[in-house]
């Protein structure tokens, strides 16, 4: 079966389980081997509890996926009256993270940062995060506490008598391309344009255009968090000249609300701007 000389191993019986090992080298055309387990001449039969055949990972196989490590470095950043920015150290082999608020799951994100929204003003919260991949979810990290700002604070507080808003373009249309961090501090509300319609009626998504120069989604989320820290609001704009989202049934309305809220949780958007050039 090995394509070369077959080998064997023998250890005299004992009163307890023993581990037997042997090795062999496959031939150039070998695709399978047969392993025999049996007693020796004149000896009684014995039982095999487990059989493990291992080889070097040189034939195109992959190591089994293991549950990622527990995230570390969880820290709270900028807060408003209704949100808290969180960040943590990325975990190797993790494909996503789950954020918990006071023991309840509140967000699932791909990167190592998020903004938890929908909070009450002047309230203390406890946050934890876990890492996950195809093998499962890690244990939760140590908790970090944060208190939201009072209702008079920026972002989620009282509406000012006057506010300056403008659109940040997530595309290159010939105007100066800039990152969110480059938007003038004179703007109080920044509308990120635009969300994308999906094939599911009412559902929206958001995809960073490589043309704007962000290295990762986490880099973009960091800019949103920085704007929050400066007392600015960042909302996601839906619609525009070419964007059309159909909300014509209960199911599509639910899909719109759920997907909009999920994007707010993932990126830290403060809300949604409806740009009715094509209807909704």
> For this structure, what is the CATH class of the largest domain?
Alpha Beta
Distance between the termini: 67 Å
CATH topology-level name of the largest domain: TIM Barrel
- Count of the separate structural domains: 3
- Listing every helix as H and every strand as E from the N terminus to the C terminus, the arrangement reads EEEEEEEEEEEEHEHE
Name the descriptors.
280 residues; alpha+beta; Immunoglobulin-like; TIM Barrel; 3 domains; five-stranded antiparallel β-sheet; four-stranded parallel β-sheet; 2 helices; 24% strand; elongated
Q: Would you give an account of this structure?
A:
The chain has 280 residues and is α+β, with helices and mostly antiparallel strands. It folds into three domains: 63 residues, no CATH class; 73 residues, Immunoglobulins (Immunoglobulin-like); 111 residues, TIM Barrel, CATH 3.20.20.80. The chain is 11% helix and 24% strand. The protein contains two helices and 14 strands, in the order ββββββββββββαβαβ. The strands form four sheets. Strands 3, 4, 6, 7 and 8 form a five-stranded antiparallel β-sheet that branches. It has a four-stranded parallel β-sheet with strand order 9-10-13-14. Strands 1-2-5 form a three-stranded antiparallel β-sheet. β13, α2 and β14 form a beta-alpha-beta unit. The longest helix is centred in the last third of the chain and has 18 residues. The protein is elongated and about 100 Å long.
């Amino acid at each position: 079966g090995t394509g070369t000389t077959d080998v064997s191993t023998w250890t005299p019986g004992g009163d307890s389980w023993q581990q037997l090992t042997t090795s062999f080298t496959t031939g150039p055309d070998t695709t399978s081997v047969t392993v025999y387990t049996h007693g020796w001449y004149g000896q009684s039969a014995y039982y095999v509890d487990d059989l493990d055949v291992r080889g070097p990972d040189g034939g195109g196989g992959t190591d089994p996926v293991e549950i990622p490590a527990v995230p570390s470095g969880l820290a709270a950043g900028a807060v408003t009256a209704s949100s808290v920015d969180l960040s943590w150290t990325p975990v190797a082999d993790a494909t996503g993270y789950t954020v918990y608020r006071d023991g309840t799951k509140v967000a699932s994100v791909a990167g190592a940062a998020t903004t938890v929204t929908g909070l009450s003003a002047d309230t203390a919260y406890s946050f934890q995060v876990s890492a996950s991949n195809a093998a499962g979810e890690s244990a939760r990290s140590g908790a970090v506490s944060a208190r939201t700002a009072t209702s008079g604070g920026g972002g989620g507080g009282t509406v000012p008598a006057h506010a300056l808003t403008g659109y940040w373009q997530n595309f290159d249309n010939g105007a100066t391309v800039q990152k969110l961090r480059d938007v003038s501090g004179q703007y109080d509300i920044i509308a990120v344009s635009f969300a994308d319609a999906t094939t599911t009626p009412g559902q929206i998504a958001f995809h960073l255009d490589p043309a704007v120069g962000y290295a990762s989604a986490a880099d973009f989320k960091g800019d949103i968090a920085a704007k929050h820290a400066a007392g600015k609001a960042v909302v996601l704009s839906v619609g525009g000249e070419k964007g059309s989202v159909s909300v014509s049934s209960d199911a599509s309305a639910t899909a719109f609300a759920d997907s909009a809220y999920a994007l707010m949780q993932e990126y830290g958007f403060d809300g949604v701007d409806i740009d009715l050039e094509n209807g909704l």
